[in-house]
């Protein structure tokens, strides 16, 4: 008996020592830091512009196939990935304001998927939310009229409880809207030459070079990789041939926040956010983007020089666990810009860009509070049969969106672009939040008052979503639904919807 007691006690001691060692390792391990370690030996891939046709009704028609494949992600052996019209990521869709578009989406995967048009103003039935699954082997053809300012949008899956996995494996692409009335002709605009999509994602790999979806130990936000890809390329460089280059930055990661700067500390020019150009350019030295956020920036280059776009630690907000386990100390070299020996001169950046009419809070028909904490909003997890907000068409609303605890969150709403009125702590609103937005980072214990106007589309039976764009949080229930109804209308929500319409 004594022998077994002794062995049990010894086992407890060993487990305690091992546990303490693991705890010390977790608490003392250094953050990820690739600054100065990236070789930049691969040319940046520029996603091709998706081909399209114009049908007999004058509609621009695109074709997208969601499929599996193998991709060289810099790990020696090809990695299993997913993509649209290829093995990884997708082409850039481009359309003009006023055009009718149709996108034929065929699901060649072995599971349900959707395609959500992130930042697009369109009918709820075409939005691609989790209530509109595309079954394996099926084709869904959303169609709508493009009617919003020139902007950098993107598309990605939004299936029930599988968004993180599908985006992480590679299902994502950009959607650019052109509109002469809300763009500036003197800005760089030649796609792939001086106007470059920059889709940034972090990845984690196992010993066989395959993507792994395991979260970092202690992380509350999901996958945090130790490698960064730009447009699917590890260690990329961009050959610059003009004195100004326009970078359309997209944080397409599932969880990580990027805090962009240039390696020599020079400022760059912020000209646009999620929903289009700002009213004027802003000189900035750092630019933080949470998951799903976009920004358009101009970088001035001199002949023959090289400068690196890098990401430093996000703002030091939140408690120790947030900083230690959510990537708050990580640094990455992201993309090297290499200027040619002779550069084509670019026009000067104008002092004003486009008009951004301000919405008036006094006109708001409704105010709402949305508190994000744990994995719920206002204490409730997502339920497909429940409507969380009923909005009247052609009305303006003010929402206070707030992070209720210490874990980073974000706020994304479908269908509309909003304007930021104020921080809930009374602090200054940064330039990135001065224009149209559809996604905003919610710092721990803080948030924003935002204003938005719901126009054009009413459908009492089909919801739009609002949610945290940390995709694991979304998958675990941090999402709500709203319907837009005609004045005096009421929701008529059903649990599932057919693909017609």
What does this structure look like?
With 501 residues, the chain is mainly β. The strands form six sheets. It has a seven-stranded mixed sheet, with no helix packed on it. The termini are far apart.
How much of the polypeptide forms β-strand, as a percent range? 35-45%
Uncertain runs with pLDDT below 50, 5 residues or more? Answer: 14-28, 497-501
Global mean pLDDT: 92
Instruction: State the end-to-end CA separation.
Output: 75 Å
Structural class: mainly beta
Number of strands: 33
Number of helical elements: 4
Features:
501 residues, mainly beta, seven-stranded mixed beta sheet
Summarize the structure.
Helices cover 9% and strands 38% of the residues. It is built from four helices and 33 strands.
Strand and helix map with partners:
Elements: H1 2-28, E1 42-43, E2 53-54, E3 60-71, E4 79-84, E5 93-96, E6 100-107, E7 116-118, E8 139-140, E9 143-145, E10 151-156, H2 163-169, E11 173-178, E12 195-203, E13 227-230, E14 233-234, E15 236-242, E16 244-251, E17 258-262, E18 268-273, E19 276-284, E20 287-289, E21 294-300, E22 306-311, H3 320-325, E23 332-344, E24 366-373, E25 376-377, E26 389-392, E27 395-403, E28 409-413, E29 418-423, E30 439-442, E31 447-454, E32 464-467, H4 471-475, E33 479-485
Parallel strand pairs: 1-15, 3-6, 5-11, 12-16, 15-23, 24-27, 26-33
Antiparallel strand pairs: 2-3, 3-4, 6-8, 6-9, 7-10, 10-11, 12-13, 13-14, 16-21, 17-20, 17-22, 18-19, 18-21, 22-23, 24-25, 27-31, 28-30, 28-32, 29-31, 32-33
């Amino acid at each position: 008996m004594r022998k077994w007691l002794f062995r049990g006690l010894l086992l407890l001691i060993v487990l305690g020592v091992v546990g303490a060692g693991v705890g010390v390792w977790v608490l003392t391990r250094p953050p990820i830091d690739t600054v100065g370690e990236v070789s930049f030996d691969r040319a940046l891939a520029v996603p091709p512009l998706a081909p399209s046709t114009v049908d007999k009704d004058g509609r621009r028609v695109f074709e997208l196939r969601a499929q599996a494949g193998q991709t060289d992600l810099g790990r020696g052996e090809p990695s299993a990935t997913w993509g649209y019209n290829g093995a990884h990521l997708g082409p850039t869709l481009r359309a003009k304001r006023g055009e009718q578009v149709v996108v034929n989406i065929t699901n060649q995967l072995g599971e349900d998927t959707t395609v959500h048009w992130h930042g697009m103003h369109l009918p709820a039935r075409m939005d691609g939310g989790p209530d509109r699954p595309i079954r394996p082997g099926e084709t869904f053809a959303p169609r709508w009229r493009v009617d919003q300012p020139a902007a950098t949008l993107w598309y990605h899956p939004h299936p029930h409880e599988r968004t993180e996995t599908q985006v992480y494996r590679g299902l994502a692409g950009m959607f650019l809207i052109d509109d002469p009335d809300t763009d500036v002709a003197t800005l760089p605009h030649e796609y792939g030459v001086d106007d470059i999509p920059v889709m940034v994602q972090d990845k984690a790999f196992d010993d066989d070079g395959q993507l792994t979806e395991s979260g970092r130990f202690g992380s509350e936000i999901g996958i945090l990789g130790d490698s960064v890809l730009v447009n699917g390329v590890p260690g990329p460089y961009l050959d610059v041939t003009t004195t100004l280059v326009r970078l359309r930055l997209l944080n397409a990661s599932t969880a990580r926040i990027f805090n962009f700067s240039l390696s020599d500390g020079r400022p760059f020019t912020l000209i646009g956010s999620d929903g289009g150009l700002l009213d004027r350019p802003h000189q900035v030295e750092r630019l933080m983007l949470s998951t799903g956020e976009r920004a358009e920036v101009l970088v001035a280059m001199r002949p023959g020089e090289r400068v690196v776009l890098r990401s430093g630690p996000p703002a030091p907000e939140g408690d120790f666990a947030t900083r230690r386990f959510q990537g708050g100390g990580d640094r990455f070299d992201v993309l090297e810009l290499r200027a040619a020996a002779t550069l084509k001169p670019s026009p000067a950046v104008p002092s004003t860009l486009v008009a951004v009419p301000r919405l008036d809070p006094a006109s708001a028909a409704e105010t709402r509070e949305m508190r994000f904490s744990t994995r719920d909003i206002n204490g409730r997890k997502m339920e497909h049969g429940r409507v969380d907000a009923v909005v009247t068409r052609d009305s303006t609303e003010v929402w206070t969106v707030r992070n209720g605890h210490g874990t980073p969150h974000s706020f994304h709403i479908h269908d509309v672009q909003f304007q930021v009125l104020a921080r809930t702590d009374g602090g200054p609103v940064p330039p990135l939040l001065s224009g149209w937005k559809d996604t905003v980072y919610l710092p721990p214990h803080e948030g924003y008052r935002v204003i938005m106007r719901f126009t054009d589309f009413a459908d009492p039976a089909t919801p739009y979503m609002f949610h945290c764009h940390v995709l694991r949080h979304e998958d675990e229930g941090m999402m709500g639904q709203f319907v837009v109804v005609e004045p005096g209308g009421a929701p008529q929500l059903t649990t599932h919807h057919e693909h017609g319409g």
